[in-house]
């Protein structure tokens, strides 16, 4: 069985928010809820970097561990889904999640938050009919053999979604091409034509060649 | 004119050639040149900052209300405290209390009165005090049960009853907890204010502790209107109870935009204090009901037997013993059980 994962190649993300819009469009989520967000660190500085974040469908998911109603479950594909019929809107998953994935439509007195909503990896959720599923959780593209729309529509292919092994292979290939010592996550050494720096290439180079 | 045009064309050609030339250089993928224009990527300092959860002026998030950093490790700390410490030790505290009470009851049994009750009664709790007590007590029990269900229910009831029943159960727990909690808070503060005078520590309380409250064996240490054990319960409610109320309100009103970290810590304080109080409340319930002869009567009718008063609250008994009335007298409507005789108000 596949282990579904997202991977955002920070070197490629151009902060276009196409993934955010694609997600909104595919899942028709409630007003005020945005399952995917783009974070830009050091905005305007030479070290500026952008990363698209949503539910990371963790192996050891904190939301699952702290949920008082036990409404979370993992599909065979490693996708973390939740049952909105069981959710009581306590907000514990929101406390526990390191990625800020769980969101609530309301934030009212007496802990009235409504049902939690988060990225489903475009895999829907538990419901009796397709209509109900779409209403509650949004698209179930996985059932149609398609990947999440955010990744499919990413203009620079920064956001990858799919089986962890495949995603890792694609990223590894990119890293090898770029010549980074430790992937896209390190600072580019800008000095000297020699050594590691000389073996590096950049986004433009990577984008012109397949793989 | 034609010369000028010629010069222009030559210049343009030169520029174009230069342009094509530089483009050719770029396409030849000179690593050094490319590095100078590549995306910088975040350095170690940036990742340290991400880890710390802090957000600086150059942080952008495309979600309108989000002030989360990229990664928030604080939630993991909360998860560990809640799941690895609060959950098991809360169960141990409450379980140990139940076992201790059961053992105590089996070994020592009920604390009976040394003398036979005379049937002469002393007025102890007014109707208002009893109403307050039972309101707070009922709310406490509802909140304790719903709270325990929120913390432990999923390990028991989901597999036992199935999703439909469990969903209704846990939803009812959350709603009752959230709406009755503030009411409990208000009533607890009123009852704390009402019983404040009775529960000021006195010198003889130390002696009471030394004798273990006279819980085991014969003999009764000195006690006023409230004995030292009751005072401990009072001050636990006045400290841990108030902590439960405040932390509960922090959790219950997310509309004031308090941060997630504030709510996580409020949750830990709330759970620890509430579980502790629940464990101690079991002791209070035991002593007040099956554990001691004649105690429940006081909170039920407002009157206690003079023998009970003499044995359990001797100092208070000395103050009010001349106001004792016959039980038969209380049954007549003229006695007006809700009116406390004026001089009986103790210290």
From TrEMBL, chain A:
Cofactor(s) recorded in Swiss-Prot or TrEMBL: [4Fe-4S] cluster
Protein's UniProt keywords contain Transport: yes
Keywords annotated in UniProt: 4Fe-4S, Electron transport, Iron, Iron-sulfur, Metal-binding, Transport
Record-annotated 4Fe-4S ferredoxin-type domain positions: 4-32, 45-77, 78-107
A single MF term (Gene Ontology): electron transfer activity
Pfam families referenced in this protein's UniProt entry, alphabetically: Fer4_11 (PF13247)
PANTHER family: PROTEIN NRFC, PROTEIN NRFC HOMOLOG
Name by which UniProt lists this protein: Formate dehydrogenase beta subunit
Species of provenance: Franzmannia pantelleriensis
Taxonomic lineage from the root: Bacteria, Pseudomonadati, Pseudomonadota, Gammaproteobacteria, Oceanospirillales
From TrEMBL, chain B:
InterPro entries reported in the protein's UniProt record: Cyt_b561_bac/Ni-Hgenase, Di-haem_cyt_TM, FDH_cytochrome_b556_subunit, Formate_DH_gsu
MF-aspect GO terms: electron transfer activity; formate dehydrogenase (NAD+) activity; formate dehydrogenase (quinone) activity; metal ion binding
Region of interest: Disordered: 327-347
SUPFAM superfamilies the UniProt entry points to: Transmembrane di-heme cytochromes
Main subcellular location: membrane
Listed cofactors: heme
Keyword Ribonucleoprotein: no
Compartment(s) of residence: Cell membrane
Gene3D superfamilies the record matches: Transmembrane di-heme cytochromes, Chain C
Membrane topology: Multi-pass membrane protein
Signal peptide: 1-26
GO cellular component: formate dehydrogenase complex; plasma membrane
Keywords from the named record: Cell membrane, Electron transport, Heme, Iron, Membrane, Metal-binding, Signal, Transmembrane, Transmembrane helix, Transport
GO biological processes: anaerobic respiration; formate oxidation; respiratory electron transport chain
Keyword Transport belongs to the record: yes
One Pfam family linked to the record: Ni_hydr_CYTB
Highest taxon above the source species: Bacteria
Domain Cytochrome b561 bacterial/Ni-hydrogenase: 124-302
TM ranges: 89-110, 131-152, 179-196, 232-253, 265-287
Entry's family note: Belongs to the formate dehydrogenase gamma subunit family.
Protein name as annotated: Formate dehydrogenase gamma subunit
Organism listed in the record: Franzmannia pantelleriensis
């Amino acid at each position: 069985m596949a282990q579904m994962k997202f991977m955002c190649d920070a070197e490629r993300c151009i902060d276009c928010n196409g993934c955010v819009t694609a997600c909104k469009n595919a899942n028709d989520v409630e007003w005020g809820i945005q399952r995917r967000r783009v974070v830009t660190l050091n905005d305007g500085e030479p070290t500026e970097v952008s990363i698209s974040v949503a539910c990371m469908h963790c192996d050891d998911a904190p939301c699952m561990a702290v949920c008082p109603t036990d409404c979370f479950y993992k599909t065979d594909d490693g996708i973390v889904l939740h049952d909105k019929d069981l959710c009581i809107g306590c907000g514990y998953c929101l406390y526990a999640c390191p990625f800020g994935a769980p969101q609530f439509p309301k934030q009212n007195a007496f802990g009235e938050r409504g049902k939690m909503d988060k990225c489903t990896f475009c895999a829907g959720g538990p419901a009796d009919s397709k209509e109900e599923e779409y209403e509650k959780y949004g698209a179930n593209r996985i059932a149609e053999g398609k990947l999440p729309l955010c990744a499919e529509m990413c203009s620079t292919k920064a956001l990858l979604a799919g089986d962890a092994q495949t995603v890792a292979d694609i990223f590894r290939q990119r890293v090898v091409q770029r010549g980074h010592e430790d992937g896209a996550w390190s600072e580019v050494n800008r000095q000297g034509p020699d050594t590691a720096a000389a073996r590096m290439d950049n986004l433009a180079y990577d984008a012109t060649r397949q793989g | 004119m034609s010369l000028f045009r010629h010069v222009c064309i030559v210049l343009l050609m030169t520029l174009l050639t230069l342009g094509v030339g530089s483009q050719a250089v770029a396409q030849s993928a000179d690593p050094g040149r490319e590095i100078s224009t590549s995306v910088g990527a975040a350095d170690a300092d940036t990742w340290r900052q991400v880890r710390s959860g802090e957000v600086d002026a150059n942080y952008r998030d495309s979600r309108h209300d989000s002030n989360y950093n990229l990664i928030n490790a604080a939630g993991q700390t909360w998860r560990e405290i809640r799941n690895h410490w609060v959950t098991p030790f809360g169960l141990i505290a409450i379980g140990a209390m139940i076992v201790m009470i059961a053992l105590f009851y089996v070994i020592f049994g009920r604390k009976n009165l040394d003398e036979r009750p005379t049937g002469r009664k002393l007025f102890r709790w007014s109707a208002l005090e009893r109403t307050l007590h039972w309101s707070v007590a009922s709310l406490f029990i509802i909140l304790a049960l719903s709270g325990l269900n929120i913390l432990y229910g999923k390990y028991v009831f989901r597999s036992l009853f199935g999703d439909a029943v469990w969903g209704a159960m846990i939803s009812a727990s959350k709603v009752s907890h959230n709406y009755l909690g503030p009411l409990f808070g208000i009533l607890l503060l009123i009852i704390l204010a009402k019983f404040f005078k009775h529960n000021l520590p006195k010198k003889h309380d130390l002696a009471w502790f030394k004798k273990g409250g006279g819980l085991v064996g014969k003999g009764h240490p000195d006690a006023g209107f409230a004995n030292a054990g009751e005072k401990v319960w009072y001050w636990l409610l006045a400290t841990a109870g108030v902590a439960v109320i405040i932390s509960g309100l922090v959790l219950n009103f997310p509309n004031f935009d308090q941060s997630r970290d504030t709510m996580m810590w409020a949750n830990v304080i709330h759970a620890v204090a509430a579980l502790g109080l629940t464990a101690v409340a079991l002791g209070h319930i035991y002593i007040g009901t099956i554990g001691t002869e004649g105690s429940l009567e006081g909170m039920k009718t407002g009157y206690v037997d003079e023998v009970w008063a003499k044995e359990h609250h001797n100092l208070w008994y000395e103050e009010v013993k001349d106001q004792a009335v016959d039980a038969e007298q209380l049954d007549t409507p003229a006695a007006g059980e809700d009116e406390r005789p004026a001089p009986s108000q103790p210290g």
